[in-house]
Amino acid sequence: MTDSEDEPRKGARRHLVDLAPLKESPAFARLFLGGAVSLIGAQMSVLAVGLQIYDITGSTFMVGLVGGVSLVPMIIAGLWGGMLADALDRRRLLIVASLVSWASTLALLALALWDLAELSHGGRAQAWPFLVVTTVNSVAATIGSATRSALVGRIMPPHLVSRASALNGIAIGVGVTIGPALAGVLVASAGFAWTYAADALLFTAGFLGIWTLPSLPRLGERAEVGWAMLREGAHFLRHAPNLRMSFIVDIIAMTFARPYVLMPAIGATVVGGGSLSVGMLTAAGAIGTMLTSVFSGPVARVHRHGLAITRAITAFGAFAVLFGAAILVLSLGDHEATAGWSGIHWGALAVLAFAMLGMGASDEVSAIFRSTMMIQAAPDEMRGRMQGVFVVVVTGGPRVGDMYAGILATAVALWFPPLLGGVVIIALIAVLTRVGSSFREYDARHPTP
């Protein structure tokens, strides 16, 4: 059965997201709903950590190190976690990874309370413990994400995979919209400690969804985690040009146009409003993600997934250029006279929010088809390792992007990293997809790695 079979017959459902995966697989439904709730909390902590480190150090470079320090551990965790997902019971592995992630959130809460105690004595906590704890959290999240993605093919019929990927986009959109917005309000009104505490509480919903999964042991003969298994995965990837290209184009997008590390400085110097503006801009990107998923009905009728990914990432680069150009124009002007409620420059905020919305929407189009390609083109015994590489790209690429943006913003200006990065993305995608013609011609009706 292909994605084109069992298409929704009602006109409205040809445009809106298809809920068939939730009805077809109760296990996926519980995983989806729990993950959406827990992701809200996780995104609250992601924003709060960046804001707190900027509050402690006043350095965009230090905020960029949140991603940079965890990069190598995440790469190792992705590759190792992918092998574990191919060798062990995926449910048990996901439970362990989730518990480690929860413990790291409680550690962030303890660090925030330590900072409060230091403030009461006229000092501040050091930033490096936050970097250590977020690295542990990133490692656990990497292993958990690879495992979660690898198991979808076991609990979901093949013809519903692209629609399940679109639903996951809604979960991500909800988490990245509500989480940063709540974090911005909580940090401004109650402080960092309450923000981390809320994340720890919301974790419960996600854990229940994981706990109720069926047992998902390895199919086929027993496998030993080690170099032989890693070499087997590398050999498969060398002979999988379409999957390999899907990794490359996403690395390019995430490396050169990640604006999130710039947000604290943008909120403080360009648009005003501090954490409130940061929350709004981050939420705008998530709204773009969520709207794309809500109106994802047509994905079932799109078969040229490689072409769709290429066009989506090119659009992503164009919106990055707009974001950088807007900051450049705004930084050249005097906006004191136009400052509005809460000191926020609403016109500037609207332009940047539109660019973020476009980046979120185009990135989600790419993500839907890349995720579908990964599940359909890779055999089950390879999905863990391929998802491990996929997660390294999806989570490691942004860390490199954070360092890229932090260094160039410090050396040149806030507008420079997204403006230059957007141009680089458009140029590289045009060159690579002309060289890799098989990726442009990839057809989901005949998935080939």
What report would you give on this structure?
The protein is globular. The chain has one domain (16-213, 225-440): Growth Hormone, Chain: A, CATH 1.20.1250. Helix 5 runs antiparallel to helix 8. The two termini are 18 Å apart. The chain has 17 helices and no strands. It has 449 residues and is mainly α.
List keywords for this structure.
449 residues; mainly alpha; Growth Hormone, Chain: A; 17 helices; globular; disordered N terminus; MFS_dom; membrane; transport; transmembrane; cell membrane
Task: Write a brief caption for the model.
The protein is mainly alpha-helical and 449 residues long.
**Could you give the order of the helices and strands?**
HHHHHHHHHHHHHHHHH
Main sheet specs: none
Helix coverage percent: over 70%
Tell me the overall shape: globular
- When the domains are counted, the total is 1
Gyration radius (Cα, Å) is 21 Å
Poorly predicted tracts of residues: 1-13, 335-341
Structural class: mainly alpha
CATH architecture assignment name: Up-down Bundle
What is the CATH first-level class name? Answer: Mainly Alpha
Residues in β-strands, percent: under 5%
Transmembrane segments: 31-54, 60-81, 93-114, 126-146, 166-187, 193-213, 247-266, 278-300, 312-332, 344-361, 407-432
Protein name: Multidrug efflux pump Tap
Family: Belongs to the major facilitator superfamily. Drug:H(+) antiporter-3 (DHA3) (TC 2.A.1.21) family.
Domain Major facilitator superfamily (MFS) profile: 198-449
